Predict the structure.
Amino acid sequence: MAELNENYVVCEYERGTTRRDFIREKVEYPEDRQERDDGFLVFDFGDVIAKHRKWKELLPRVRPFYAVKCRPYTPILKVMNALDIGFDCASKLEIESVLNIGVDPNRIVYSHTRKQVSTLEYAANNNVDLVTFDDENELMKIKRVFPSARLLLRFALYDPTAKYPQGLKYGCKRETALILLQLAKTLKLNVVGIHFHIGTESKKPSNYQEAIAYSRELFDVAEKIGFQMSILDIGGGFPGHATSTGKFNDYAKAVSEAIDEYFPESCKVDIMAEPGTYYMKSAVTVVACIIGKRQRTEEDAGTSLIVNGSSTWSNKLNATIDSEVYDKTQTYYDYYLNEGRYTSFCNAVYEPIQTPQPVKDISDKPTYSGTIYGYTCCETDVIILKTSLPEMDEGDWLLFKDLGNYTHLVTYFNGFKRPFCYYAIPDNCRQLRHVIEDNVTNHNEAFNGNDLLPEDLSLLE
């Protein structure tokens, strides 16, 4: 379990506390951290609870199964367990992590369509029997290793507008789905439901409606050949930015309308989903210290930054720079942080990082363009290639919002460790401390998580 360990403390905040004030306090009083200028994370459980409240309000028929891979740490899993959320696991370590906090195997879906035999054996030995598949080879493997599994057939709905489209890597084609259902019947395997994923942060809520409609067709075909279908898994893909509440409303409306049309309550089909980004993205703020500063003009940079009108780094980051926008006489300020692409900003590889905010109030100062670098010796450790900030000094702090999803992957490159984490809980939810710090294995032993949902608990902007 060492891979998932992290250094953290649990602390409380009063409702009405702003994010920046909370962070300023942790900058001023750094006793919890190993070094006072170490970067750190703030994980706001109030934000997670507010998201869950919104989910239950707008998608009351859809039970969320948290995608553990999004952020797999034990305090988060314990709170999700307390809220009676299920778990979407893709590996032995994830399944083990969830089982170790006392989650019933019936609340786990082994949602990976390319399964290592030893992991499939582990799932079988621990009664984690809800398993996805999407091709003939996987069916044969399941027949050999775990023939009593309850299976979900996963099909692909390829959406090129999604940030990370599904359908290229996992999920069968529609015409293949019918063949696989017949093969599963021949092999005497138990297919209990249909599963799809439209792609992370897809831009088209209507994709859910299309996929749910096709799922209905597959249900009808499966039932005709003798399967008793009882589960529809609509996957993930829901937006999770702090500013995406209205956008999520559109997705929830599309899903609810399609479910009511194709899977009314009278059909007694359990609807589940696998959100990760939705719950995690806006919950985490990364706070980093400026450990170095460079003043330059574009002429000073020479060809080290601009080569034939484009940046050598931008090519590697799938970004482009128009050299026309640079004023060769203007002053630029580059900053070097004690966080980077090998710790809290690993998602800089595939999505742009938002412009940070200074922790201190310097809003009245003029802004300057520049580059923000990470702290390893790797030339591609660039957090933001071009940004605009007031002039900062070494020792100042920057905060970056919306970095809770898939940003925990750490290589320890150059020996830099995982950042310290403050798990922040609203002061009227002290039960969460009991959940996190005590070894509570049953969510009902701790508190009824639904009792928290009517409150607006998250840190204020």
Remarks:
- Residues 193 and 231 are 4 Å apart (CA to CA).
